[in-house]
Amino acid sequence: MNQTPVTVGIGALSFEDVIRVARHRAPVVLSEESLAEIAKSSERIRQLAHQTIPVYGVSTGFGALASKHIPAEMRTALQRGLIRSHAAGSGKEVETEVVRALMLLRLSTLATGRTGVRPEVAQAYADMLSANLTPVVYEYGSLGCSGDLAPLAHCALAIIGEGQVRDEQGQLWDTADALQQHGLTPVVLAEKEGLALINGTDGMLGMLVMAITDLDRLTRLADVAAAMSLEGLVGTDRVFAADLHSLRPHPGQQAAAANMLKVLEGSDIIQHHSGNHSTYVQDAYSLRCAPQVAGAVRDTVEHARTVAIRELASAIDNPVVTFDGRVESNGNFHGAPVAYVLDFLAIAVADAASISERRTDRFLDTARNRGLPPFLADDPGVDSGHMIAQYTQAAIVSELKRLAAPASVDSIPSSAMQEDHVSMGWSAARKLRTSIDGLSRVLAIEILTAARGIDLRAPHQAAPASAAVIARLRQDVAGPGSDRYLAPEIQATVELVASGELLAAAEKVTGHLD
């Protein structure tokens, strides 16, 4: 499929740029301005390479070996050896979208002209992305400091024609053969270039951008799920009134409450029962406080977005070529800013899933579900209904709580105590990806259960938005009845969550939810 290329230049990439390249395999081109700036700083490195004064990464070793002077005739071997030795990853292969984001964001830093690489090095990354050749990168090997070292080194290994890559169909190739097949030539690295290819927060940043993108969708769907649960449990929508939320003006909370009101607008179920439950003075917290929790999740996402935008505008390398031509060592590769928000998001995701599971559980208990059958079963006792669907939710939520333990509070010194404090941001990003997958599954089960509960309220009619979600769900999952094989129904709902179709069904009625 032909796509408009993403242009990588001196300025920051957008979230959309990252997603298009990482997930939709858009090709990449370098701007003429960036190529000129790259050439300019590259010439500065060539000048320094011939001076007698040692410059870190240009004429010295690396890390704890920085005091070792390297003669000019050995510097190509130095850079090649750096990449080979640092390509030390282990474990399962990292997902293609993560590797493509990793490469794109490293290229974005190269394009600023602050790293000192030659234009052909940057072009090699653009060419590999455009050819859909994805280096094999492994799960373990980054401490989130001095760059995502091993993951980036595996990418750099590919442009020098070594290691392995996968093509667009996922077939595994020796890199040298894949480059030849696509008419690409391996790069011979010059001074500093190997170092410039591995010094960055690109892996954790790419995963952060994708996590925020996913959560922009899932937070809106969580509001739909909460509203449907409240409707199926015959709660009151009065607690979502705008004037109540203006008393505590957190923007995320106000947006969530407004979304829930939109979804519930026109509900015959709520209107019919509004005067019939005088003993129901207040709904349980999982219903009444849904906007407060959903709002806190939203505000956490917004904080993470601010950090990600700043990081996308950054040029991270060590040493770095300054605008006035100096080459200076620095610590901008430390992943703490990104690691913290990755961990913060994992906490928010776990809590969003936790409150969702509590709403689901209410549907199954006759003491709390306001007139529905036990476990929403067709023939309770003979049928178990959604009893074990809640078990699945509970298992996921328990796992998400474990994943909410922050990675960024840990640090293991490395490189003979030269790198004595690290961020563990890559680890924070990896566990957040698992958390977001778990949240998608928990929300799917809540919607599956809420839809069944609403159907069991017939002949009273659901709100038009709820009805639209249920109608889309019913194309793939049947309504109430005797027990059926439940796992495929859960999986079908998960896929509708992941594709955005359930959210789209609601928004066809409500308009865009915030």
TrEMBL record:
Protein name, entry field: Histidine ammonia-lyase
InterPro entries cross-referenced by the UniProt entry: Aromatic_Lyase, Fumarase/histidase_N, HutH, L-Aspartase-like, Phe/His_NH3-lyase_AS
Compartmental location: Cytoplasm
Family: Belongs to the PAL/histidase family.
Known pathway: Amino-acid degradation; L-histidine degradation into L-glutamate; N-formimidoyl-L-glutamate from L-histidine: step 1/3
UniProtKB keywords: Histidine metabolism, Lyase
UniProt KW Lyase keyword: yes
Entry-linked Gene3D superfamilies: Fumarase/aspartase (Central domain), Fumarase/aspartase (N-terminal domain)
SUPFAM superfamilies (UniProt xref): L-aspartase-like (SSF48557)
Keyword Membrane in annotation: no
Taxonomic source organism: Rothia endophytica
EC number(s) recorded for this UniProt protein: 4.3.1.3
Pfam families according to UniProt: Lyase_aromatic
Catalysis: reaction(s): L-histidine = trans-urocanate + NH4(+)
